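User: Sequence recovery, please. Input:
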């Protein structure tokens, strides 16, 4: 049996707002649909907010109570047309149709209370992400795996976790963890922090952060969205480069003159040395040599090559006619 607080702005009894609730063995109290209804009132296990008529006011009340730090399960009681209006930003744990039967209402209340209770840490436990520190049993679990810590390592980790994000100097940690009667140096703190980080592992060693020239602090576990992003691998860069459009004026590598000449050399061919060929630069040394050879014979270099090819064809024809 649970203590149910029903907040409503309607002058109606609870049996008219959620009829099935009167058939269940829960204690129901009515209150006005405002945040002040929870101030100084008797504790409740679950809060129901009447959202059948004024959806905007109900949404504002949900968000106001969540913003004030209310840690109770809250459910919205809606009419048939209110289903589409309830979204995640309301902050409601669940939604109940005002005509729902007793079995459905009981199940939704039981699940909402159970989820909220399971989410609360047990007495004497400190939780931060996957890290659980149990003060009663002097044990530490990381992702369900027990860590083998010495007494001082446990005390140091517990003290830092009890004050998340607060920076402590080495002298302060010596006083709080080792006591005022400890006569060792502050180097002891560094040694224990190094051992703790090694036992936490590379994935969780940053739970104990270093503040340069000051000391140490406990860094609460971050969300998954804040994880480390690995640098792109060579395969990723190649795939991304293939999918990206080439900038204007960028020459295709397949049409590169140097690559064409390399391909011809592999096949045993020689690149064309015409003036229009990309392998011959006008005014370059190769062009000057061809021009000089052509001048010595009274013909340009291209004409000599053409005549030579023609002479070979005429000789071949004469030999064939003789046979």
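Assistant: Recovered sequence (323 residues):
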């Amino acid at each position: 049996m649970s203590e149910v607080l029903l907040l409503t702005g309607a002058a109606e009894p609870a049996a008219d707002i959620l009829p099935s609730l009167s058939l269940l063995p829960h204690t129901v109290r009515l209150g006005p649909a405002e945040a002040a209804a929870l101030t100084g009132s008797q504790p409740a296990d679950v809060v129901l907010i009447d959202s059948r008529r004024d959806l905007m006011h109900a949404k504002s009340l949900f968000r106001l109570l969540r913003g004030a730090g209310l840690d109770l399960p809250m459910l919205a009681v809606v009419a048939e047309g209110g289903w589409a209006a309830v979204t995640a930003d309301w902050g409601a744990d669940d939604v109940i149709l005002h005509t729902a039967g007793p079995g459905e209402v009981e199940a939704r209340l039981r699940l909402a209370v159970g989820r909220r209770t399971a989410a609360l840490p047990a007495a004497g436990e400190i939780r931060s992400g996957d890290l659980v520190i149990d003060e009663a049993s002097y044990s530490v679990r990381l992702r369900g795996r027990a860590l083998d810590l010495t007494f001082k390592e446990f005390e140091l980790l517990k003290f830092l976790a009890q004050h998340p994000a607060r920076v402590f100097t080495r002298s302060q940690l010596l006083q709080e963890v080792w006591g005022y009667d400890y006569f060792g140096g502050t180097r002891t703190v560094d040694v224990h922090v190094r051992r703790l980080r090694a036992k936490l592992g590379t994935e969780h060693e940053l739970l104990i952060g270093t503040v340069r020239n000051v000391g140490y602090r406990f860094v609460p576990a971050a969300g998954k969205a804040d994880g480390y992003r690995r640098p792109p691998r060579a395969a990723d860069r190649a795939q991304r480069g293939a999918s990206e459009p080439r900038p204007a004026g960028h020459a295709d590598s397949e049409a590169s003159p140097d690559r064409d000449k390399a391909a011809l050399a592999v096949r045993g061919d020689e690149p064309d040395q015409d003036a229009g060929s990309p392998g011959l630069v006008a005014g370059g040394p190769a062009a000057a040599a061809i021009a000089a050879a052509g001048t010595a014979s009274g013909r340009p270099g291209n004409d000599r090559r053409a005549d030579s090819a023609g002479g070979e064809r005429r000789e071949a024809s004469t030999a064939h006619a003789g046979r």
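The two ends are 121 Å apart (CA to CA).
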